[in-house]
Amino acid sequence: MPLLLLPYLVRVLGTEKFGIVMLAQSLCLFLTVVVDFGFSLSGTREISLCRNNKTKMSQIFIAIMFIKSALIVVAFFLLFAVVMAFDRFSVDYEVYFLSFGIVIGQAIFPVWFFQGIEKMKFITIVNLLAKVIFTILVIIFVKSSVDYKQVPIYNSLGFIISGLLGFIVSVRYISFTTPSFKLTYQLLKDTSPLFVANFASMLYTSSNVLILGFFSNNALVGIYSSMEKLIIAIKNSYTPLYQALFPWLSQQSDQKKIEGIKKIRPFVLGLGMLITLIILLFAKQILEIIYHDILITEYSLVLKILSFVAIFSGLNMLYVGLYFPATKNYKLKMRIQAYGGILNIILALIFVNLFDIYGVSISVLLTELFLLILGFYYFNKLIKN
Fold first, then answer.
1. What are the domain boundaries of the chain?
2. CA 316, 125, 244: angle at the middle one, nearest 5?
């Protein structure tokens, strides 16, 4: 639904106002990583291993939700500090603060819990509800570029409602108990490498919009964001598969885990190659049909460059996002994504000054390829051992 809504937003808001909304959204996506802290993986794993022990499962659930509540406060102060420190953000401070509802909604929706108990239908239903609410409200009330501040309001509202519903449903499966300080500390300690890894991951997924925002204008940010959203939608097509497999894979023997990854790999490679080929052949036509904007269509080369992410990202997520966490190699995942995040920042800062919007696209492509090479190398190294 957000993908279908993109053309409407670009046409109604214009590339400049659309760029402002996307810039605020990118900043809030960084903050969702702070609040998630890596529990989307570690929480899923811990719940899946003790789902037949209601007392232990309840303690883990409440400990994680307590940590997330504290991190919401930390995230808001970080947002306030960043927005007030830079004129680039403070000029539209309302958009940034109104977008913070995304962070709150993501924090209170225990996706990791439902994945752990393998009740995926709740995630599907609640996420669908959030997208429906956002889509309907935007179509009804956002009619011109002057309404751009309403977009983050409706987006936040959708996330918060879905988060509350998800939380209410989840408490049916637990009993309220006080977790020990030792358990809470252990969860923080074990998950901290995942937090670093996820934050590093955001450096090569969301930082590019921010970097482009600093070194160019809102119109170019809007153009890049419109294409990045298409690529993110493609990357997200792998996510439900990996999310569904993760709790099952975590419980398998080492040999079964390796066999599982090898069986999935040809399918992921084939799908990625097909998507890339379609974009390379029909990039202009795709942009014309979706956005019907001459300025965006003129930059079709950006979409062609980003199309290879469909191959590289799908495969590196198989290793880094699925296999390494399932085998509890959190620190390895952290190192690989940290290397990728640092490389992307360096490349983006260099290339944005040389090639503008194309430079940012090239940095994304090279980073995804780098992550695939590292993921493949360490996967083979681990299975030999």
1. 1-179, 195-385
2. 30
Kindly calculate the radius of gyration of the chain based on its CA atoms and give it in whole angstroms.
Answer: 21
Burial profile 312-338: b = 16 or more Cβ within 10 angstroms, e = fewer: bbbbbbbbbbbbbbbbebbebbbbbbb
Query: Is residue 261 within 8 Å of 324, Cβ to Cβ?
Result: no
> d(Cα 160, Cα 156) in Å, to the nearest integer?
6
Q: How far apart are CA 73 and CA 91, in angstroms?
A: 23
Q: Does residue 375 surpass a pLDDT of 90? A: yes
Q: CA of 98: how far to CAs of 80, 106, 335, in Å?
A: 12, 15, 34
If pLDDT is split at 50, 70 and 90, which confidence band does 283 have?
A: very high
Report how far residue 25's alpha carbon sits from residue 97's, in angstroms, rounded to the nearest whole number: 10
The count of other CB atoms within 10 Å of the CB of residue 346 is: 12
Judge whether 8 and 139 are in contact, CB under 8 Å: yes
Lowest mean pLDDT among 3-7, 44-48, 83-87, 315-319: 3-7
Tokens 């399932």 sit at which residue? 326
| Rounded-to-10 torsion of CA 233, 237, 238, 243 | 100
Q: Do residues 179 and 64 touch, judged by C-beta distance below 8 A? A: no
CA angle 100–174–29, rounded 5-degree value: 20
Give tens-digit pLDDT for 193-218: 778 777 777 766 677 887 887 787 77
Closest C-alpha to 61, from 165, 176, 198, 164: 176
- 């899923």: which residue's tokens? 44
